[in-house]
Write a structure and sequence with these properties.
- This protein has a single domain, classed as P-loop containing nucleotide triphosphate hydrolases (Rossmann fold, 3-Layer(aba) Sandwich).
- 42% of the residues lie in helices and 18% in strands.
- It has 12 helices and 8 strands.
- The longest helix is centred in the middle third of the chain and has 16 residues.
- The relative contact order is 0.19.
Length: 250
């Protein structure tokens, strides 16, 4: 039985989708059969971060409604073995999707894959609740500002209320010089959210360059954010990998 992680954030702009794509690629490169599911209905961008723009024809609602089988709807990544992608519908509202059917789909995927990474919409609306309803675990992505900390804290409360007990924090787009000027630390993020820290990702222009080039970050370069994501994925699978200071990533 595989594991299902929902990747979420309290607000947009934290790098949640980039994180979902990068961690999925890392898990696949480590040999785990991984499915990356875009559950951000109406605002899907996960295909761009995976370098799979417009390759998917069927979406997860086609599977839920019986119009297609899971095997027919999943796209295999052409450059990263063990990595698979299932896209979201564009014009269907999350309120119209049956949460029990979504949970059944997650269960089916867990039976066939080692890891399921679900990219959730930002915030705590119906789309977030649908994305998280079948997950066993959660990764909350936050940036180093007080509004993001507060929003992430609310997300943790909502996830806990949904019965998700394993909730980890990823602090993304970290700039040490800015933290110094703000007199803020990574510990402040942990204290504000109450979630255990699993990864620190530095601000890295390669993230944007890779997405604009249609190349997955992990294939674009092997340093900076890409290296930090790999170390985070290693912790995710249970490896004892120390969390380094940001300057050691660049």
């Amino acid at each position: 039985m595989g594991k299902a992680y929902v990747i979420t954030s309290g607000k947009g702009g934290t790098g949640k989708t980039t994180t979902a794509a990068a961690l999925s690629g890392c898990l696949a490169l480590m040999g785990y059969k991984t499915l990356c599911l875009d559950a951000d209905m109406g605002l899907k961008n996960l295909d761009l971060c995976l370098g799979l723009s417009d390759t998917a024809i069927m979406d997860f609602c086609d599977v839920l409604n019986g119009r297609a089988k899971l095997s027919e709807s999943v796209v295999s990544h052409p450059k990263i073995g063990n990595l698979f992608f299932l896209t979201a519908p564009v014009s269907i509202a999350p309120e119209s999707v049956d949460s029990e059917a979504m949970q059944d789909l997650v269960g089916q995927i867990k039976n066939e894959y080692d890891y399921l990474i679900i990219d959730s919409p930002a915030g705590i609306g119906s789309g977030f609740k649908l994305a998280a309803c079948g997950a066993d675990n959660a990764l909350v992505v936050a940036t180093t500002d007080c509004t993001s900390y507060r929003d992430a804290s609310r997300i943790v409360i909502e996830l806990t209320a949904m019965g998700i007990k394993d909730i980890r924090l990823i602090v993304n787009r970290v700039r040490p010089s800015l933290l110094s000027r703000m007199k803020s630390t990574i510990d402040d993020a942990v204290d504000a959210t109450g979630a255990q820290l699993i990864g620190i990702i530095p601000e890295d222009k390669a993230v944007i360059l890779a997405a604009n080039s249609g190349i997955p970050l992990l294939l674009y370069e092997d340093r900076g954010a890409a290296k930090a994501y790999m170390r985070t994925a290693q912790r995710l699978v249970g490896k004892k990998v120390a969390i380094r200071r940001i300057r050691n990533y660049v």
